[in-house]
Design goal:
Chain A is α/β, with parallel strands linked by helices and about 260 residues long. Chain A is built from 9 helices and 15 strands. At the A-B interface, strand 4, helix 8 and strand 13 of A face strand 4, helix 8 and strand 13 of B.
Amino acid sequence: MKVALLGPEGTYTHQAAEKYFEDLEPEFCSTIREVFESDTEAKLVPIENSLGGGVTDTIDLLREKDEKISGEVVLPIQHALISDEKSIEDIEKVKSHPQALAQCKQIIEQHGWSTEETNSTADAVTGLETGEAALASEIAAEINDKNILKRSVQDRDVNVTRFLVLNGEPEAREKSSLILEPGEDRPGLLHAMLSCFAGHEINLSHIQSRPTKEKLGEYYFYVEAEASGEKLQKAVTALETYGDVQNLGGYRKAERPE
Amino acid sequence: MKVALLGPEGTYTHQAAEKYFEDLEPEFCSTIREVFESDTEAKLVPIENSLGGGVTDTIDLLREKDEKISGEVVLPIQHALISDEKSIEDIEKVKSHPQALAQCKQIIEQHGWSTEETNSTADAVTGLETGEAALASEIAAEINDKNILKRSVQDRDVNVTRFLVLNGEPEAREKSSLILEPGEDRPGLLHAMLSCFAGHEINLSHIQSRPTKEKLGEYYFYVEAEASGEKLQKAVTALETYGDVQNLGGYRKAERPE
């Protein structure tokens, strides 16, 4: 299946797509907007990271483009130490995206390696020279036929990114994403809107406020509710008495790492 | 008064500080963390922008450092495209603070410019090389003797930033900021916490979720409530039955532009 996603080849987004799609034909884009605007059968975008929080570009584009969500993928980000060298003793310098270098400080300091920043983790792998290693995904090592000297070299284990699949065929409808736009700014309106979920015993697993870009302090809400179908529709009917609601679709809930 | 704020001279923070303090003696810092860690009489930090949303570094540091908030300033922002080049056709890359880059997405995508993040909008202006432009205040172009290629290049005209004053003497206590940390993850807990405000007829003017960085999907909330003193304390007492609450202090509400 043809799937638009953030490139280049060998990034973690690519790895997430490989995890979700059995017959992936990736179409690599350079921005999240480009992914949304491509006319592939399906698309994959990052929505949330355990360290950085909500991916604001994705949330704003979900509201703007009104694409249907058909699935989610949860990927623990684990950096591998990748090289043409065969032994970790031969490494003198590591290259990667600044974020990955920051996440692997302990092993870098332990070995006293020098560092060099690259535009992406995948770029680091393609630009390797003698005595150098890259911090990147295992898939980047496979694609470029390099050696994995050590797996999972990041400092902590809580770096997890969640991705949404757009435009595909949902395997199930366990949860749904909605955009809520309060119709006015008055005391307690957010509480009143959330009471539509509480009243129908629907759990919210995610809520993120984003500016409407119309006026300072005017926000809309991206929420994920653990319901779909008739049960969700009751909440939506109640919500619509307070403002506008976009239903972005129902999809299967992915398993979270412990 | 000695006030720590994001420098160098000519940033929007500088402009906001001039607006708030009559006797400003600015102490320029290079990161928001440095502002928080300085020991000046007062500090000024950006908290929210009408296009970019909440300033996540500030919110995370409010939670980490527990500084008291004593005031707020609201400032309309207009970015200029600034360069040593004389024509917009010669620009290949734009540099600025990530938030300014986010606020000028349309012109950047239109021209296909690459981008580079800097610590401040003013830093972008002083570090310009051939083929590069900065997004910054017009005053920064004047101070550094650069060309303004285009004025007011932000996506929309509703670009307003709100700043918080820390550590000063509040002129009044019309509103308060709180950090809420739910004690568990269960259906309806956010709704239950918000009911503590609704029940005491306290309006929330702002709510922002941020990851705790412990686990995917685990969030804390930064909220601004239009109350202080005894009335707020009742809500806080109720809130504490659901989780941890940090009261960051009460302060005067600044006027918003129409």
